[in-house]
DNA sequence: TATATTTCTAAGCAAATGCTTAGTTTAGGT
DNA sequence: ACCTAAACTAAGCATTTGCTTAGAAATATA
């Protein structure tokens, strides 16, 4: 046949994911991807088509990684306590060394503008809605909670989580802890 | 002496502000600024030095505009109700046509990375801290509230506000209203 | 070993970026 | 009316962007 690939696609995508997470989509150049992934531009384009292709694969890799905590939430039957734990788990998940990168998906939603790529936008929306649905499921475990009430609470909680994704880049851990505790005080 | 400027610097900065607000800092090119401000690149550079100079002036213009609602908050003596009103005022302030642009400052904090311009970063941090201080002041109007408690509550509220700056781009008004009402339920 | 097929290297492309500059137009003081 | 200093126009600069391509290197099969 022919020559073998000298890299593992999953491995190099993991590295790309880290770069996009740290840096955002637009600010990450193909030259930076080259260095971080450790492969040539030709290999990048032959494996993933284009920069957007690398990013979409990175989103998938991110989803796969975050599944460890979303799975935990979907299996939880502890009502709002399970969701609170998810908030703490998320902060831990988003931490790199001593600094926090926020959520890759939220970061991208924030970055992509109205003229942003619709393919990417849809991916991101689906992701956010999946998490919101998990919130609803868990909120309905609280006895006496109606579907309407759970929906409203999930909006509130998603807002807090989005806020946390931003706050975590700026504030310190104790401030974030206060915020989480307060968030769950009155639901 | 010499020829007179054919444009008003305040006016063209207003237009630049709108563009940065819609589009973010990096995504806004000097060519776009030319068109939006209605003046030539030479004029841009001679009046404001460089792209960053235009942006810093835009931040100032933004601060001046948002002062209408921060002033209202600083004059309020209605405790947490005054802050809640600020949240609603902010949503109205950030609206353009039927869509929401979020907060220019929050957008930029989200966009600027670790290697981002320190001058801009400091401007943005100062702005966020000013608002947080306003929260503390108003929270202390609630009788029996300690300074420590007010500080913790202000972290929580700032997190909600940051979340709202993101949420407002994605969710509809009724969802945002639910979120605000919930946010103020238990403080 | 020879061949076919894929992967690799590295050079290069057009377009876009922030910024500059050469040269023209305008206007106020003499 | 003339001159000087500022403001204009538009062309152009080097660099960076995402992406391509020509050609060399490697490897499974014949």
UniProtKB/TrEMBL annotation, chains A, B:
Protein name from the UniProt record: TetR/AcrR family transcriptional regulator
DNA-binding region: 29-48
Native source organism of the sequence: Zobellia barbeyronii
InterPro entries: Homeodomain-like_sf, HTH_TetR, Tet_transcr_reg_TetR-rel_C_sf
Family matches, as Pfam families: TetR_N
Keywords: DNA-binding, Transcription, Transcription regulation
SUPFAM superfamilies attached to this UniProt entry: Homeodomain-like, Tetracyclin repressor-like, C-terminal domain
Domain HTH tetR-type: 6-66
PROSITE patterns given in the database record: HTH_TETR_2
Higher taxonomy: Bacteria, Pseudomonadati, Bacteroidota, Flavobacteriia, Flavobacteriales
Origin superkingdom: Bacteria
